[in-house]
Amino acid sequence: MKKCLITNLVFALVIGILPASYAKDAYILKFATLAPEGTSWMNTMRELGAEVEKESQGRIKFRFYPGGVMGDELDVLRKMRINQINGAGFSGQGLGEIVPEVRVMDIPYLFEDYRQVDYVHNELFDYFAQKFSEKGYELMGWSEVGFVYIFSKTPIEKLDDIKNVKLWSWQGDPIAKEAFTSMGLTTIPLPVTDVLTSLQVGMIDSVYSPPIGAIALQWFTRVNYMVSLPITHASGAVLISKKFYDGLPPDLQELLKQKFNKHLVSLVKQSREDNKLSVETLKKNGITITEITDPNRIKEFSDACKNSWHSLINKQFSKELLDKILSLIEKANEEHQ
Per-residue confidence at 23, pLDDT binned at 50, 70, 90? Predict the structure, then answer.
């Protein structure tokens, strides 16, 4: 009897001095992304996960699902809604399924440089954070896909050349559909996960992507040319389900916010550098950069794409929001002067 009491006393003392993480189960944040293992994105996410686990004393742990193993972004959203996944990194395609108007930042020929992108993202963060919150998601921070270029098996030097290729478009993406329709194109819509196979069998012979994406997804192995003129800048973000986030103690919520902010800012900088270096990698692997420098041809592309802006107003976003962004871009330019 005395021995049993001593054992119970020791057990109680041990429980009393251990951190809370050892007295209860950890929160497991199941996080999905299309980014393959070994990319800057996944390396950064794993660093973030390790820091969070250490500083929370094991109270939050990440379980990662990279490389699209949970399906494309629409699949991931469905799994978040049934709590199979708690968080994910999304491009505009996935974000727009939740808050359609966020896609205004993906319309073609809106941004000219990263300075404008950063200014608009910073100014509109609180606005979109509220919009996502209303739909059941916590906006942890912006990421980005980067400036997007057309890759093809045959050279594209003018607008009419695109009409002769079998161009992929992201299935279900209204921005891509309107942009390419305004250019007089008929595309072949497919999920991202089907693109490489479709290139291999000849179903498509042209895609669009940032340089780093073309390498990470191995699309560059099936094309020969990259158009030097970017058609758009593609935004991205990290979302956590509010059900998971709201279930965390306040100190862990704050820890997640701090770590995501820190690492996503770093990731954006790294992504931009990676995209720059990726162009050189593409050249070394036989990809020819088709330079479009003639102002008339640039205007031809730009005018055709900007026609899609008008068709998306009141469908995807309001004219007021578009005007606000154009005004913010003007302010960004004025502050730079």
Answer: very low
* Separation CA 262–CA 234 (nearest Å): 21
pTM of the model as a whole: 0.85
Whether 187 and 174 have beta carbons less than 8 Å apart is answered as no
Burial 187-216 (b: 16+ CB within 10 A, else e): beebbbeebeebbeeeebbbbbbbbbbbbb
Residue 56 has pLDDT above 90, yes or no: yes
- pLDDT for 312 beyond 60: yes
Q: What is the dihedral of CA 64, 102, 132, 331, to 10 degrees?
A: 110
Average pLDDT, the chain: 90
160 Cβ contact partners less than 8 Å away, ≥ 6 residues apart: none
Per-residue pLDDT averaged across 268-275, rounded?
Answer: 93
Per-residue pLDDT, averaged over 143-168, amounts to: 93
Which one has a higher pLDDT value, 324 or 306? Answer: 324
Longest Cα–Cα distance of the chain, Å, equals 94
The β-bridge relationship of strands 225-227 and 60-65 is unpaired
Q: How far is CA 223 from the centre of its chain?
A: 23
Q: In this structure, what token pair is assigned to residue 228?
A: 């030097």
Torsion, Cα 85 87 91 97, to 10 degrees, reads 60
How many C-beta atoms lie closer than 10 Å to residue 97's C-beta? 18
Residues forming a β-bridge with 90: 237
Beta bridge pairs of residue 139: 239
Question: What does the block give as tokens for 73?
Answer: 């972004």
- Please give the Cα distance from 310 to 274 (Å, whole number): 34
The DSSP call for residue 158 is: S
Calpha distance 325→307 (Å, rounded): 17
How far is 209 from 264, CA to CA, in rounded Å?
20
Domain ranges of the chain: 13-336
Q: Which fold has domain 13-336?
A: D-Maltodextrin-Binding Protein; domain 2 (3.40.190)
Higher pLDDT, 297 or 24: 297
Give bridge partners of residue 67 from the DSSP assignment. Answer: none
